[in-house]
Amino acid sequence: MRVNRMDPDDAEVEASTHSPASCPQEGPAEGTGVHEEQARFSGGLQRTGPLQSGIGQLEWVNYQSGGRGHHPNQLCVVAVPQGLSDDAVSNAVRCLLLRHEVLRTAFDADGEGSPQQRVHRNVLAPLPRVEDGEARRLFAENPFDVATEPPIRFGRTPEGDLVVVIAHIAADGMGGWIIFTDLTELLAAQSEGRAAHLSAEAPQPIDRALYEREDGRPRVEAALKYWNTALQDFPVTAVPMSRSNPGADVLRATLESPAATQAMAALHRKLSATPASLFTAAVYTALAVQFARTRLGLSMTWSFREYPTTQDVVAAVFRDMPLIVDLTGRPSFSEVLRRLERSLLLSGRHMGFDVLEFHECAGRIDAERGSFLSGPEVVGSTIYGVDWDSVDQSGDPRALLAESRVVLERTNGFGDGCNLYISGYAEEGRLHIHSRFDASIAGARDDAGFVTLIEAILVHASVSGDLAFEEAEALAADPWQPGARWAMVDSVWVDLDFLADRLRAHPAVRHADVREEDGRVTAHVGTNLQPWELRDFLLSTDNGRSAVLSPHHFVVDRTDGSTVAGSGVDRPMKAPAGAAEKALSDAVGEANNLTGPTMAGTYLTVGGRLHLAPRVFALLRDSGFEGITVEDLRRPTSLTALARRLRQISEERT
To answer: Cβ–Cβ contacts within 10 Å for residue 94, how many?
Structure first.
C-alpha cells in the first residue's frame, strides 16, 4: 500500500529528550505454538474510553458485525540501519508501542453497544522472518482480530528490514505515515546512540474522543446540521447512470507524466494554488468534458488533521469530504479552480462531524430523494515530496507528452469497491495520475483516455496560464454522448430504458414506460402495486457499484380501471408478515429500543443507528437468520425488502 505523504514543513515535529534507552528493556516474547509469531497484550489494562470519530468507526462496525475491516491493512517496509543489533531493533519497536496508545488498543463494544477502545499497558511483539514476496503478501493481508489482539504486527525481511502491518481501524494513511516516520527515527537514534527527535508527548485517540463528546459536541452538531441541508443537492453520481454488472471488473490506468510534472510547477507559480487544488480542478474539468456535466460531486479524501489536537495523533480520523463544484457557464480552468477552492473552504469548515452520524444523515436523505450510490466516487491527492520551485520550467511541457507512459490493468479484489476513483501522487519527483472505473460505466472503456485528458488539461493550461472550456473539450479524444432515451435528472444523466426495464422485472408489473415530462421523470406503470412499493423495488436494485434512483413521479394504472399517482416518498405503517420479517422487525426494535418499526420504512428512517448494527445481526442470528450486511442497512431500502434477503441458518451451523 502507498502511504500518504506530507511535506516536511507540515510535520510540526519538535525535538525531545526521548532516549534510545528510555524504554523498558523487556525482551521479545518467546511464544510457542500457533501464537509464536503473533503480537499480544500484556500487563493488563491502562485505560478505557470511547472511539474517536473517523473512518475507524466504519471499520469498527464491520469488525463487530462479524466481518473484516472495510479497508485493506496498511503495509510498509522500514529500513533498519546497517549493523543495528536485534536487541536494538526490538527496543525501537517497544518505544514505538509505548509512545502510541492506539498500537496497544483492543476495539470492542461497551455495555450499551457503542464503540469502545481498551488500552493495554504493553504489547509483546515478536519479529518473525518474512521470507519472500508471497510471504509478505500473506503477512499483510491476514486479518486482525481487533477485539482481542493488537492492531499491528512486525516482521523482518531476510535483509533485516522491518515489515510493519497496521489495521486501518488503528490508523488512517496519515496515521500510518506518522508511525513509519517515528519508527525510522527511533531506529536511527538506536543506531547513532542519541536521543530520538520526537515530540515530547504524542496526542492520544481517547483524549480526542472525550473532547468530541464533551466540549467539542456543539461543533459536531453544527457540522451535521450543515450537511443535512447541503447533501440534499449532492449529485448521486458523477458518471452516466445505467445498467451496471454486479461483480464487474475495475479498469485501472496509471499515467506517469513528465509533462504534467512541469505543467504543475508552472501552474503552481502562475495561479498561486496548491498542487492538490490544481490536480482536483483538472479532474472536475475532465469529468465535465467527458460526461457532459454542469454540476459534479465527489468525495475528496480528507485527512482531518488539525493543529494541535489531531496534527500528530495516530488514529483513523480520516473522513471523506463531499465536494460539489458548479460548472455551469462553461468555465475556464482558472474559474473551475476558483469555484473548487471556494467549495473546499465551505466544506472544510464543516468537517468536524461524527462519521457514523454523518452516514445516518446521508442515508435518510437518500431515502427522501430516492437515490443511492453503492460504490464511492472519490478524488484524492497526495502530491508530496516535490520541490516545485526547483522543477525545470524552461521548455514547453507539450514537448514532453511523448514521454508519458500509461499502465493498464483489470482487477477485481478486496480493494476494488469504488465506482470511480481518481488520484494524483508523486513518485521520484514525477506526477502520476491514476484512475479506476467500474467496467460497466458508459464511456469509461477507454480508461487511458481519461488520465491522458487530465494530463492534457494541466499541460495546455500551463502554457498560457489558463484554458477555455471549449479548448478543454477539444482535448477529449472520445467524449461520451447521451442517447435519445437519456435524460438529465437532478444533475445526473440517466438511462430511462434502464429504469423501465427494471420496473418490468417485477412480477406484478404488466407494463412500464419511463419518460421525461416537464423536467421531471415520470414512470407510467400497469400494476396493482402502490407507488412506494415501485420506488422501493427500484432502490433495492443490485446495480453493482453504480448508482440507482427512482423517478420523481409514478402514474399507476390498476386492473380495476382506477389510477393512483404519487412520488412514493411517503411510506405507510406496515406490520411484519412471515418469519423473516418478524425476526428483522424484532431485532431492529430490540437493538434500537424502538416499538413496532414499520416494515415499509428503511433501517435509518425508522430510527435505526449504525453503531447498533452488530446488535441487530446478533439478534437475527439468535432467531436463526442471517444474510444482510451493514451496507444493506445503509441503503434506502425497506425492511420488507431487506427481510427478503435473509436466509435461515442451517441446523448444522446452529
So the answer is: 21
Helix (H, G, I), strand (E, B) or coil at 556: strand
Quick check: is 360 in a domain?
no
Neighbouring C-beta atoms of residue 168, cutoff 10 Å = 26
Mean pLDDT by 10 residues, the chain (654 residues): 30 32 43 56 96 95 88 94 96 97 97 96 96 92 95 96 96 94 97 93 93 94 96 95 93 96 96 96 97 96 78 92 96 98 95 96 96 95 89 93 95 90 94 95 80 98 96 95 93 96 97 92 97 96 94 97 96 95 98 96 97 97 95 95 94 64
The CA distance from 444 to 5, in Å, is 29
Q: Whole-angstrom Cα distance, residue 111 to residue 113?
A: 6
92 occurs within a structural domain = yes
Q: Residue 532 is part of a domain; what is its CATH number? A: 3.30.300.30
Q: How far apart are CA 590 and CA 373, in angstroms?
A: 29
At which residue does the C-alpha cell 477485539 appear? 147
Residues shown for the chain: 654
For residues 190 and 254, state if they share a domain. Answer: no
Q: Which of 528, 536, 526 is nearest to 567 (CA)?
A: 536
In order of 58, 336, 343, 410, the CA distances from 277 in angstroms are 27, 10, 11, 29
Count of structural domains, the chain:
4
The pTM score is 0.90
In-domain check, residue 210: no
H helix runs in 100-160, sequence order: 133-141
User: Is 263 in contact with 256 (CB distance < 8 Å)?
Assistant: no
